[in-house]
Design brief:
The structure holds 2 protein chains of 2 kinds. Chain A is α/β, with parallel strands linked by helices. Chain A has a single domain, classed as Rossmann fold. In chain A, about 20% of the residues lie in helices and about 25% in strands. In chain A, strand 10 and strand 11 form a beta hairpin. Chain B contains 26 helices and 28 strands. Among the domains of chain B are: about 220 residues, Alpha-Beta Complex (Phosphoribosyl-aminoimidazole Synthetase, Chain A, domain 2); about 170 residues, Phosphoribosyl-aminoimidazole Synthetase, Chain A, domain 2 (Alpha-Beta Complex). In chain B, about 65% of the residues are buried. By secondary structure, chain B is an alpha+beta fold. The longest helix of chain B has 21 residues. Classes of the chains: A alpha/beta, B alpha+beta. Chains A and B meet through helix 1 and strand 6 of A and helix 8 and helix 10 of B.
Chain lengths: ~230, ~725
């Protein structure tokens, strides 16, 4: 079982993702953005950062990276994919997830511990039950999720909303939404349920001694590892 | 070339004559520009170096002291910490976003020059009072610049300070500290060596941006034409910085480097002359090989351009191809621009002609040295005579404490640091908001504790004592986390050195830093001097900022500032009637006067050692330094951080407001399951200690003086900056 973490020029959290997977007992390696293939991997993480500087629209250039056709192919064939922050933006740009991430409503970068509520979704993308609250850091300037033309209703009906921003009691309020995302959406999956994109950084919440002192991100990274095991068996 | 042309470049007539004597001829236009840049105050330290020489720079852990790109200390297990603090004050006033952003970029490249991966940023900032639109604009812009640049290059910003005083109204201070961790075996030197070796210019193309940055912007006072200086500010490209970092570190890791230096102030001219001078060699520099952003650039422009995100790497001829291959992989432009020669001259060719041929040492090391007149100003006596103990006492101490907690210098800086990525690289044990930032050293049980401190008001009252207090507070902050302070870097922000009172302030402050560093055993590994922080007739308060680094042998033993319920609260150190330069005097009465708190450096050392010992022995649950706002603010901050209140028994003997708001040095508030062992250890260490009370409940009660609910305290503290800045 091996997780490939794609390294774009400008990626910042790729080493953190590798470390988080290893911290939870998995194997991980960096995959260079200029590679033709993903190599022997059972799951893929697109990490956080500012790929190619994100001077255009976040993720808009990364989707054309040489390795991306292989990522798309891996996702289309049902392989487990997790896009975190910039990775989420890239997945949206690449058409693997619906919607877009736009500039934070307050026009400022925000880095803080963030409670998110696990929603009822179509797939076992997280080792936590519906309604559970996880505290996972956010750190982004462009994290305001806006659904695509098919709309919020469709996402809801098809069980693609995986996380919503909330307070520690699970209520979504103005103050608990760090970026003004539509309906407080923090993470969504594709219709097949194998591709997850989220703005919060689970890789920064696997060891409570560091960062914002939460271990709740293990519920996401751990679930990815389980999905990877299933994928490798299949 | 004429003296008038030299003057336009910031050179004096004497300096011009000195160039003529050095060369035994008139300089060319390019040469004159090179001397103008390299002999600027910013690059040459010509007014400060006679004082800086007196600082203690040696210690058991010091691997490299001042003189190269950054200071280096041994942190065990074959690892080193590389760190430096630098200013980007003038550019940030002219253009706050880009000025601050490129300040981050510059200091980061200093750390890479030593072959270390940058792992932390800290930003000590000073602004005028935020009730003015311009100041709010500057704060927002500077914070946005740091946020955009630092976040984009994946280096956590884990600390710093934000302070406000009218003296910074026309001259904000933007200081940036970067710390890197590297392998001792791969430490790079910023020097050229080995005849025939090749200098590669890596990173951005060279443009017309930033020409004259060191001489026009950094080495002159501000005047009404500041707006016209905007073209002297560079524009940052964090993406290029990021890939340059990765490419440089990979080249270093593969052992391909002879030397590495960043291009900062005075650009290519500085990087080539300094590396050559340090290596006692010459360089043949071919300007036609330098990739340019625009056609038609003159040699002097190419030489002194301060275009960002550039590095100069010295490699052996046989390693050039490998180094270029790494650069290609990262998409970093790299070009051979110079060859190492014997003889010591920097020889510059352009379109086949030699446009400059000067001894590298004469640019980098043999510039003028000034013993500028220094005199104790008369105004200082009047200032010191204004005794704050005569100020009217507050009628309601609870109200007075709340007023302090919501005031710009004391209130929570969350509005600022929430815009910084403080957790990337997954080593942040304690980020912004506490006494010191604490960073795990991956792969070891150890951690580094880092704090930046400086109090301009105290230095205005007494620059020597104020500077000592800055070193002491930085060391105390580091010790409060449980670490032992090891070494400092500094950024010395002062007014115009051509004024005798400023020069006196500078001399006194440097002496104070030296005294304190010797007493506390924390040598100076480097630093930066920023003069000409003056607008019109207003000089800033002398503001030496200290960046202290300490080592925690066992990261799991570290302590924070937060209380737990049911613990004893103990004050270590003594509270005296000392309100000179205090935050209370300023907030309540807009008063600045008197003398700063007295400092017994031996007592401070005892306290610092005791704090580290208490943490190591696991005897304390929290520790918080007592500084601005005094005991009242310290207690409130502990309560806010933990959402746990306390009942405190006040000390008699001092007027209540003096006891509450005095800023006596060498004090810390600790909490412990039981005070007994702490009092014993304090007694053995010779540190005064007194039980203040006990934690618990949801109120901060100081018997007979004040009784405040935590919610009110917390909202006031957190609401301060958002209400000021929006």
């Amino acid at each position: 079982m091996n997780v490939g973490v794609v390294q774009f020029p400008g990626s910042n959290d790729e080493r953190d993702a590798v470390w988080a997977v290893k911290h939870l007992g998995g194997e991980a390696e960096l995959v260079w953005h200029g590679a033709d293939s993903l190599g022997d991997v059972d799951a893929v993480i697109l990490p956080g950062g500012f790929s190619y500087g994100d001077y255009l629209r976040c993720g808009a250039i990364a989707r054309f990276a040489k390795v991306m056709p292989a990522v798309v192919e891996f996702a289309r064939s049902g392989g487990p994919v997790l896009g975190i922050c910039n990775g989420f933006q890239i997945l949206c740009e690449a058409g693997l997830l619906p919607g877009a991430l736009t500039r934070n409503q307050a026009l400022k970068f925000v880095c803080r511990p963030q409670p998110i509520r696990v929603e009822k979704s179509i797939s076992a993308l997280v080792d936590a039950g519906e309604g559970e609250i996880l505290v996972i850091p956010v750190k982004h300037g462009d994290g305001r999720y806006v659904p695509d033309a098919r709309g919020l209703r469709h996402l809801e009906d098809s069980g693609q909303i995986v996380f919503r921003y909330s307070d520690l009691e699970g209520r979504s309020t103005e103050g608990s939404n760090p970026n003004g995302a539509t309906d407080a959406i923090a993470g969504v999956c594709n219709e097949a349920g194998n591709v997850l994109g989220m703005m919060p950084h689970p890789e920064h919440a696997v060891d409570p001694t560091v960062g914002f002192h939460s271990g709740d991100g293990a519920a996401v990274i751990g679930a990815l590892l389980k999905r990877a095991v299933r994928a490798s068996i299949a | 070339m004429t003296v008038a042309q030299a003057a336009a470049l910031g050179l004096t007539e004497d300096e011009y004559q000195r160039i003529v004597e050095t060369l035994s001829r008139e300089p060319t236009a390019a040469e004159l520009a090179m001397y103008g840049a390299m002999w600027s105050e910013h690059c040459s330290y010509k007014s400060s170096k006679i004082y800086l020489k007196t600082l203690p720079t040696e210690g058991p852990r010091v691997v490299m002291g001042p003189g190269e790109s950054a200071g280096i200390i041994d942190i065990g297990d074959g690892l080193v910490a590389v760190f430096k603090l630098e200013s980007h004050n003038h550019p940030s006033f002219v253009e706050p976003v880009q000025g601050a952003a490129t300040g981050v970029g510059g200091i980061v490249r200093d750390i890479i020059s030593a072959g270390a991966r940058p792992v932390a940023l800290l930003d000590p900032l000073r602004f005028g009072m935020p009730d003015e639109w311009l100041q709010r604009h500057l704060v927002s812009g500077v914070v946005a610049g740091i946020s955009q640049y630092g976040n984009s290059i994946g280096i956590p910003t884990i600390g710093g300070e934000v302070k406000f005083d009218p003296c910074y109204r026309g001259n904000p201070l933007v200081n940036v500290m970067c710390l890197g961790i590297g392998e001792a075996a791969h430490v790079q030197r910023a020097r050229a060596e080995g005849t025939g070796n090749v200098a590669l210019l890596m990173g951005s193309k060279t443009g017309r941006d930033g020409i004259g940055g060191v001489s026009v912007l950094a080495s002159r006072p501000f005047d009404a034409e500041a707006e016209a200086k905007r073209p002297s500010v560079q524009v940052g490209d964090p993406f290029t910085e990021k890939v340059v970092i990765e490419a440089c570190l990979e080249i270093a890791r593969r052992g391909l480097l002879v030397g590495l230096q960043d291009l900062g102030g005075a650009g290519l001219c500085c990087a080539t002359s300094e590396t050559a001078s340090r290596g006692m060699v010459g360089l043949d520099l071919d300007l036609d090989a330098v990739p340019l952003r625009e056609a038609g650039m003159e040699p002097f422009e190419i030489l002194t351009s301060e275009s960002q995100e550039r590095m100069l790497a010295i490699v052996r001829p046989e390693d050039v191809e490998q180094a270029l291959e790494i650069c290609r992989r990262w998409g970093v432009l790299a070009t051979q621009v110079a060859t190492v020669t014997t003889g010591g001259n920097l020889t510059v060719t352009f379109h086949g002609d030699v446009v400059a041929d000067v001894p590298a040492r004469s640019l980098a090391d043999e510039g003028p040295t000034y013993h500028r007149p220094a005199a104790r100003p008369e105004w200082i006596d009047e200032l010191r005579a204004r005794d704050p103990l005569t100020l009217e006492a507050p009628k309601d101490l609870g109200e007075a404490l709340l007023e302090l907690l919501g005031s710009p210098n004391i209130c929570s800086k969350r509005w600022v640091y929430q815009q910084y990525d403080s957790i990337v690289q997954h080593n942040t044990l304690d980020g912004p908001g506490g006494d010191a930032a604490v960073l795990r050293i991956e792969g070891t049980p150890r951690a580094l504790a880092i704090s930046t401190d400086g109090n301009g008001r105290l230095c205005q009252l007494d620059p020597r004592l104020g500077a000592q207090l800055a070193v002491a507070e930085a060391a105390r902050n580091v010790a409060c986390s449980g670490a032992r302070p090891v070494a400092i870097t500094n950024c010395l922000n002062f007014g115009n050195p051509e004024h005798a009172d400023v020069m006196w302030q500078f001399a006194e402050a440097v002496a104070g830093i030296g005294d304190a560093c010797i007493a506390l055993g924390t040598p100076v590994t480097g630093g930066n001097v920023s003069f000409y922080n003056q607008t019109g007739e207003t000089q800033i308060h002398p503001t030496p900022v200290i960046g202290m680094v300490g080592i925690l042998e066992d990261a799991s033993k570290r302590v924070g500032i937060a209380w737990s319920a049911g613990h004893d609260v103990v004050l270590l150190g003594e509270t005296r009637a000392e309100l000179g330069g205090s935050e209370w005097a300023w907030v309540a009465h807009e008063h600045l006067g008197g003398t700063p708190p007295a400092l017994d450096l031996a007592a401070e050392k005892r306290l610092i050692d005791l704090l580290a010992e208490l943490a190591e022995r696991g005897l304390i649950a929290s520790a918080h330094d007592c500084s601005e706002g005094g005991l009242g603010v310290t207690l409130a901050e502990c309560a806010i951080a933990s959402a746990v209140g306390a009942t405190i028994d006040p000390e008699s003997g001092l007027a209540p407001h003096v006891w509450l708001f005095s800023e006596s040095a060498s004090r810390a508030v600790i909490s412990a399951v039981s005070a007994g062992p702490v009092l014993e250890a304090a007694k053995a260490a010779g540190v005064p200690a007194r039980v203040l009370g006990r934690t618990g409940g949801q109120r901060l009660t100081i018997e007979g003086l004040l009784d405040l609910g935590l919610e009110e305290i917390g909202q006031t503290y957190e609401g301060g900056l958002p209400s000021l800045l929006g």
